[in-house]
């Protein structure tokens, strides 16, 4: 009988991080895919990732609504509590053989705690990385709750073993998001087509001309500064005058401040060279990214996918502090003049040789094969 592999997707970036593994699990003769979509992945104001998931042909077995309004520290903590109660019910209903949780978002705690207390083996994707802030605490906590570790790099594997995990259960698979980054249709994007299908608001751009991509999220340990930080970036982008496609922030403590900062800035200033999107399907987003001069902000996309593609990245602030990075990344603070200078250096378009830090494009099949053959156990010190 095929093993039932239950994957929990809680946000739009989580889907990109696991998409190739979902395909490989579904195609594997010894595995049965169960898919739970939860939290902000269900919400329209964050781009409704579940719509993209279904368009990609995946069947969603359960939807878990768990996000409280407010986007602050209190609502984040309460959302985890709601999610824990709901996940326990869903796991009891689906009866998976293994649960997979992804990366470090706060919602992953609900998945990890529920599966652990229900003695369901837990596999964690992208453990062992360092970034600081609450994300690192969540990531390492999930590592200790997990039974199997599907890490993106050799250095991440070393860290997981140093945390006391059994070496035989730590597998260097690479990051599934790199699979797609190294294998997508690189046909240039036409803005009119992009706007017609995916909407958004703001300027209509000619994507045959140089442009940049902006993705800025709040830092959960500095959430009170979110509005101030995004306004500094907005002022810099306005001053530069370089056409930009700007993507909405994730649902984190402080995202309300980021969103309000963007809206208030748009009311005060004419932005004739900026278009804002909530979300794009993974392949479309990669085409947009690939055609750009570079990415600006604090998203891990700059560290992962852009490293694989050799796309220059201006990383602002400390949200990605400590994460392994390539030569494509320039790190700066939230200083308008520094941002302006760094962004202007992105034009004209160029590429930086990749070091392959986060994988070779074959993570999805590796993950599926490991899940099919690994002996199942929830005993933390049992080596095999």
CATH homology-level superfamily of the largest domain: Glycogen Phosphorylase B
- Count of runs of 4 or more consecutive helical residues: 14
CATH architecture of the largest domain: 3-Layer(aba) Sandwich
> How many structural domains?
2
Q: What is the end-to-end distance? A: 23 Å
CATH class of the largest domain: Alpha Beta
DSSP summary, beta strand count:
14
Helix content: 40-55%
Structure characterization notes:
The chain is an alpha/beta fold. It has helices at residues 12-27, 49-55, 73-94, 108-117, 133-145, 154-162, 176-181, 191-198, 226-240, 255-268, 282-290, 305-309, 336-344, 363-373, and strands at 3-9, 31-38, 62-64, 98-102, 122-125, 148-151, 170-172, 201-202, 212-215, 244-247, 274-277, 295-297, 313-316, 329-332. It folds into two domains: 3-181 and 360-373, Glycogen Phosphorylase B (Rossmann fold, 3-Layer(aba) Sandwich), CATH 3.40.50.2000; 191-344, Glycogen Phosphorylase B (Rossmann fold), CATH 3.40.50.2000. β12 (295-297), α12 and β13 form a beta-alpha-beta unit. The longest helix is centred in the N-terminal third of the chain and has 22 residues, at 73-94. It is globular, with a radius of gyration of 20 Å. The protein starts with a strand and ends in an 11-residue tail after the last helix. The model has no long low-confidence stretch (mean pLDDT 93).
């Amino acid at each position: 009988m095929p093993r039932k592999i239950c994957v929990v997707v809680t946000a739009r970036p989580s889907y990109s991080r696991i998409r190739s593994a979902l395909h490989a699990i579904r195609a594997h003769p010894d595995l049965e895919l169960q898919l739970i979509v939860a939290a902000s992945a269900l919400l329209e104001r964050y781009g409704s990732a579940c719509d993209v998931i279904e368009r990609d042909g995946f069947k969603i077995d359960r939807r878990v609504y768990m996000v409280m309004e407010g986007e602050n520290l209190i609502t984040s903590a309460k959302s985890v509590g709601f999610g824990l109660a709901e996940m326990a019910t869903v796991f009891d209903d689906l009866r998976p053989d293994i649960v997979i949780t992804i990366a470090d978002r706060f919602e992953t705690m609900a998945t990890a705690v529920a599966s652990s207390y229900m003695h369901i083996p837990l596999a964690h994707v992208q453990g062992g990385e360092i970034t600081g802030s609450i994300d690192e605490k969540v990531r390492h906590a999930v590592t200790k709750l997990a039974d199997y570790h599907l890490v993106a790099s050799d250095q991440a594997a070393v860290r997981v073993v140093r945390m006391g995990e059994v070496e035989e259960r730590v597998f260097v698979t690479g990051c599934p998001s790199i699979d797609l980054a190294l294998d997508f249709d690189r046909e240039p994007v036409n803005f009119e087509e992009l706007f017609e299908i995916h909407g958004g608001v703001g300027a209509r751009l000619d994507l045959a001309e140089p442009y940049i991509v902006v993705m800025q999220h709040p830092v959960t340990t500095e959430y009170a500064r979110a509005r101030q930080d995004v306004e500094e970036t907005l002022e810099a982008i306005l001053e530069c005058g370089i056409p930009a496609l700007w993507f909405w922030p994730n649902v984190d403590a402080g995202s309300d401040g980021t969103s309000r900062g963007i809206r208030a800035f748009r009311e005060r200033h004419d932005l004739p060279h900026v278009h804002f999107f909530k979300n794009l399907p993974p392949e479309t987003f990669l085409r947009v990214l690939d055609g750009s001069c570079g990415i600006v902000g604090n998203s891990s996309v700059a560290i992962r996918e852009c490293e694989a593609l050799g796309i220059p990245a201006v990383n602002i602030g400390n949200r990605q502090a400590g994460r392994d990075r390539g030569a494509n990344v320039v790190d700066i603070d939230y200083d308008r003049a520094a941002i302006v200078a760094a962004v202007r250096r992105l034009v004209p378009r160029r590429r930086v040789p990749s070091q392959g830090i986060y994988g070779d494009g074959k993570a999805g099949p590796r993950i599926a094969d490991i899940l099919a053959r690994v002996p199942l156990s929830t005993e933390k010190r049992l080596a095999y």
